[in-house]
Amino acid sequence: MAEPTVVCPQCKTEIKLTESLAAPLLESIRRDYEQRLTQKDADMAKREKALHEREAGLQKQKESMDEQVAQKMQQEQARIAAEEGKKAKLAVGNELNQKVQEINDLQDILKQRDIKLADAQKAQADLIRKQRELDDAKRELELTVEKRVQTDLAATREKAKKEAEDEMKLKVMEAEQTIASMQRQIEDLKRRAEQGSQQLQGEVQELELEALLGTRFPRDTIQPVPKGEFGGDILHRVIGPLGQQCGTILWESKRTKNWSDGWLPKLREDQRAAKAEIAVIVSQVLPKDVETFGLVDQVWVAHPKLALPVAIALRQTLIEIACARQASEGQQTKMEMVYQYLTGPRFRHRIQAIVEAFSSMREDLDRERKAITKQWSKREEQIDRVMQATVGMYGDLQGIAGKTLQEIEGLEFQGLLDFTTDEEKPL
Q1: How far apart are CA 242 and CA 264, in angstroms?
Q2: Is 352 helix (H, G, I), strand (E, B) or coil?
Q3: How far is 144 from 347, CA to CA, in rounded Å?
């Protein structure tokens, strides 16, 4: 560490401060500092003493001034109290007289108000009685309106229920409508055929069958067989969902009084000539062992009423066989299995189940139609009775209340006419 130096102010010579040189210098500086500090302490003591003396003088002056102020305050308070006492006595006397006058005026006003209050209470009693009568009439009217709303709500719910039932039965109704339309055509053709010859009746049934198949299967090719070619009446070429030809059904229509077994070999020959996969005879008269339809000597026999269900089943079978043939072309075993299924009892049972399901659906629809018609008639009569009672009650209230009873929409004259018109409209 470098030693401290001192520069001479005259010659500018730097002198190093060694311990021997610095000790007297530091001692001199310390003594000078202590003298100055002692002098400052003495000056501070003098100033504090002067301040204490001045503070004591100020305290004495303050005490003297407080005593003078207190004396003046007591004198002023005594004078103000005397003056205020006089003023208060005068003011209390005047105020008392004024209060007495005000009490007398208030008593007069209370007497007048008592008289007016008695009149008002009487008027209020009359008003309450009238209001109670109006409330009773209003409640009766609200009850009438509520009953009508409940009646309308019940009718709306019944209508919604009917719409839901109709929507659920839409598909069944479409099938039933198709069957009913075909049956109407059949019955019409039957009535016309009964008036002609037996040959004409057979032609009518043939046309009926052709129309039935053409309507039910618009994508298929339904062609009448020209007279003198290979026999049969209708050649039905089945077209699959992808537009492919799946097979052919040869239809023969018979309308005679007796069944002939000779029809079977002739139709089989016609089937071979037409290269048809299936042959069907639709006849009014069936063999002894066949009730509705069945397979007799490799020829399907069916009643005219079951022609459409049989056609649906046979057509679906041809489509499935064609798809199976296309998927497994060259597999003779599967073809034999399909042929065995087509000519076996399982296929006949399935067709019979379809026909029975159609018959059951038709019977259910007839029963539901009768039940719904009965319910409609019953509800219509109930609505008429409720409406007559409501109108009668409203007329009684209007006769009692007069013009004060407000008009109710739907119960006025025009509304009743509109309601009657709507009720008379056919369903």
Answers
A1: 34
A2: helix
A3: 65
Helices 170-194 and 198-216 pack at an angle, to 10 degrees, of 160
Tell me whether strands 293-296 and 299-302 are parallel, antiparallel or unpaired: antiparallel
Query: Angle, nearest 10°, between helix axes 345-401 and 170-194?
Result: 110
How far apart are alpha carbons 262 and 252 in whole angstroms?
A: 13
> Model's pTM, two decimal places?
0.34
Burial (CB < 10 A; 0-12, 13-18, 19+), residue 158, is middle
> What is the signed CA dihedral for 311, 312, 318, 319, rounded to 10 degrees?
150
Q: Which residues in 255-391 belong to E strands, given as ranges?
A: 278-283, 293-296, 299-302
**Cα–Cα distance for residue pair 285/296, rounded to 1 Å:** 14
Question: In one letter, which amino acid is 100?
Answer: V
* One-character DSSP codes across 131-196: HHHHHHHHHHHHHHHHHHHHHHHHHHHHHHHHHHHHHHTHHHHHHHHHHHHHHHHHHHHHHHHHTS
- Coil/strand/helix, residue 282: strand
Low-confidence ranges of the chain (pLDDT < 70): 1-10, 15-23, 25-26, 164, 168, 171-172, 175, 191-202, 227-231, 328-335, 394, 397, 401-427
Domain ranges of the chain: 20-50, 82-168, 217-374
